[in-house]
Design goal:
Blueprint (H helix, E strand, L loop, with lengths): L2 H13 L12 E5 L2 E4 H9 L12 H24 L6 H6 L1 H16 L8 H12 E10 L2 H12 L4 H5 L12 E3 L7 H7 L12 E2 L4 E11 L7 H28 L5 E3 L1 H17 L9 E3 L4 H8 L1 H5 L1 E5 L2 E4 H10 L2 E3 L4 H27 L6 H25 L5 H13 L3 E12 L2 H12 L4 H10 L4 E4 L3 E2 L4 H7 L7 E7 L2 E14 L5 H32 L1 E3 L1 H6 L10 E3 L5 E3 L23
Antiparallel strand pairs: 1-2, 1-17, 3-4, 3-6, 5-6, 7-9, 8-11, 9-10, 12-13, 12-14, 12-16, 15-16, 18-19
Helix pairs in contact: 1-10, 3-16, 3-21, 5-15, 5-16, 6-10, 11-15, 16-21, 17-21
């Protein structure tokens, strides 16, 4: 399982200790709808939910309260969604259950692998000794084992390796020696053997790989300690690498034991049918891709389900002993973590799809092992799963509620008359937006901005690399730009804001220009079309605020004002990934859209407001 080496190092950095990022302190910052928002939970989510710009007129204290109100609203709407039965709806099956399975697999990883990793000081010291020095070597390559032995003995008796390399093709790129660092990223077996060489002139016995035989000689040692790469940094790297090696060893042992003798059958007819449909979609939408990769993800689930039809979706795709996995569930898991390739070659795509099927089988078996051990009932696991479930339920419930609200021409005309009688300030903004569905892009933009990079320069870079969509608009009325415009309306020229998550995509933007004018509106016929979206949004916002306030009164809200008025925490302006055990990656926390406006409608408990 090669993926373990890809994920393990970053995983240990971000998730060591299991539910480290979640609540350890049960004292509540607030209670909402029967749920507690603990102080630790609030602080972690506030610190790690990036907020690039504090809105004008908002103090640090008010900013913290506004974020708490956002979490309270999330809890209220989640409970309302459950009462509506949305927790059993197809939306949850598609978006939440694959994520729940990841957390239960991660809990199994913590129990079976991470909890058993114990690296001694001696192991760290040995790794430090290897990392500190790079080996400057030269080697002779041959496909003849007899010649390899001859070279080894000649070098061992003092013959110059440069004389042996004369006229050989491998001499061309190692005139100054071939540098090898102890990283375990290339050939770990060869690295271990090479680091047994201690003194310049030492020769390694012929080493064989798939290509042929190598005979290495140590030329010199390069000390890697420098002003930038201090001994302390190397020691930290040594600890991380030793931990990674120990973890990898435990995983390999577990993998061989756990999957031994397991038999699984898959539906070949459905597989090859999916294969052809995936190639069709990738080819059809190739012009829309953001980089050099062709991909399919969750946004194609509805289309694929229609292409296959209800009867095919009900068929078992995987048979694991007495248990089967429907093709419908398999499609959800297949698309949940985007499937991408760099070529449209059918054979290559088929091979990668078979690897994905193998991975899904393994993940399903690990998930059910976690269930067998009762890890779904572990308090830390339940807290993390509840966090995401609340997010998905609240978003869906609010979406369904606002979508049910419409407007009519009479309301638009009434709004127009109000504007005519009381001319309002028109705010126009020019924005540059970076729009992406990639967590990597969000993280890299935030890191670059934190380091002082210019937003416009970053946008140009991502546009040229086709890794994100970049949109620049001329001065336009803020309301015409949707949710982004309503945020931009209260920002200042030069402010950067984000990420906002809208329609499953992340948006970061900068206000390039902003102008305000108080002008009487033009004739109704001229502005009717432009006013309609603004009237609809205003109506929906008002209804949503009123409904949220009603839910607060219905379910009850309590705020720990003593804590909220005394706590001093700052937003880290960073985006954190969570690398999950046994593979997979998600955002450490939901990117919840800011929503505190509803408190203006909440009149029942004014003493709870700051």
């Amino acid at each position: 399982m090669s993926f373990i080496k890809t994920y393990i190092f970053l995983f240990l950095l971000t998730t060591a200790g299991g539910g480290l990022l979640l609540a350890q302190n049960n004292e509540p910052a607030a209670k909402a709808g029967g749920s507690h928002i603990t102080r630790e939970y609030f602080e972690k989510r506030f610190k790690l939910s990036p907020q690039l710009t504090r809105l004008p007129g908002v103090t640090a204290e008010k900013e913290r309260y506004n974020f708490l109100y956002t979490l309270i609203a999330e809890k209220l709407w989640s409970r309302h969604a459950s009462e509506l039965g949305l927790d059993t709806a197809d939306h949850i099956r598609r978006n939440f259950l694959p994520l729940e399975r990841m957390y239960i697999r991660d809990a199994l990883w913590q129990q079976e692998i991470a909890s058993k990793v114990n690296v001694s000081p001696v192991e760290i010291l040995r790794t430090f000794a290897k990392i500190r020095f790079s080996l400057i070597t030269k080697f002779v390559f041959t496909t003849d084992s007899v010649e390899a032995l001859s070279v080894y003995y000649r070098l061992s008796t003092g013959e110059s390796i440069d004389s042996l390399l004369a006229g050989r093709p491998e001499a061309d790129f190692q005139s100054q020696g071939f540098e090898i660092s102890y990283t375990k990223n290339n050939n770990p077996d060869l690295e271990e053997k090479l680091y047994t060489l201690e003194n310049p002139g030492d020769v390694l016995k012929p080493y064989r790989d798939q290509e042929g035989w190598f005979v290495f000689q140590l030329i010199s040692l390069k000390d890697n300690i420098s002003a930038e790469n201090t001994a302390e940094k190397i020691q930290s790297t040594a600890k991380d690498l030793a931990t990674s090696l120990k973890t990898d060893s435990l995983y390999q042992a577990f993998y061989k034991k756990f999957f031994l003798g397991i038999s699984v059958e898959s539906n070949g007819e459905l597989f090859w049918s999916l294969h052809s449909k995936v190639i069709y979609i990738m080819t059809r939408d190739s012009s829309k891709r953001k980089d050099n990769r062709f991909s399919v993800g969750p946004e194609y689930l509805d289309e694929l389900e229609k292409l296959f039809g209800a009867d095919s979706l009900r068929l078992p795709f995987l048979t694991l002993g007495t248990r089967s996995v429907s093709f419908s569930d398999f499609l959800i898991w297949f698309l949940f973590e985007r499937f991408s390739v760099t070529t449209l070659d059918p054979r290559t795509i088929g091979a990668f799809m078979q690897d994905r099927v193998k991975s899904i089988i393994e993940q399903d078996l690990l998930y059910h092992e976690g269930l067998r051990r009762g890890l779904d009932k572990d308090p830390k696991v339940r807290e993390e799963i509840t966090m995401w479930k609340d997010y998905y339920l609240s978003m869906k419930a609010k979406e369904l509620y606002t979508d049910s609200i419409s407007t009519n021409p009479d309301e638009v005309e009434h709004y127009y008359r109000e504007l005519s009688e009381n001319p309002q300030t028109s705010v126009k903004v020019s924005l540059i937006q970076i729009i992406t569905d990639s967590l990597e892009v969000v993280q890299s933009v935030l890191d670059a901005l934190k380091g002082g990079a210019d937003f416009t320069t970053l946008a140009e870079f991502y546009e040229k690399s086709s890794s994100a969509d970049v949109h620049i608009n001329e001065l336009a009325e803020a309301e015409s730009l949707g949710d982004v415009g309503y945020v931009a309306k209260v920002l200042n020229k030069g402010d950067v804001y984000g990420p906002l998550r809208i329609n499953e995509r992340y948006i970061l933007f900068k206000v390039l220009d902003k102008q305000s004018d108080t002008l009487p509106p033009a004739g109704f016929t001229e502005v009717k079309e432009k006013l309609t979206p603004a009237v609809l949004k205003k109506k929906r916002d008002t209804a949503l605020d009123k409904k949220t306030a009603a839910l607060a009164d219905r379910y009850g809200v309590e705020i720990n004002e003593k804590y909220m008025n005394s706590v001093e925490i700052e937003n880290f302006k960073m985006f954190l990934f969570r690398f999950m055990g046994f593979g997979g990656r998600i955002a450490a926390f939901p990117v919840t859209p800011p929503y505190s406006r509803w408190t203006d409608q909440w009149k029942q408990k004014p003493q709870s407001l700051p």
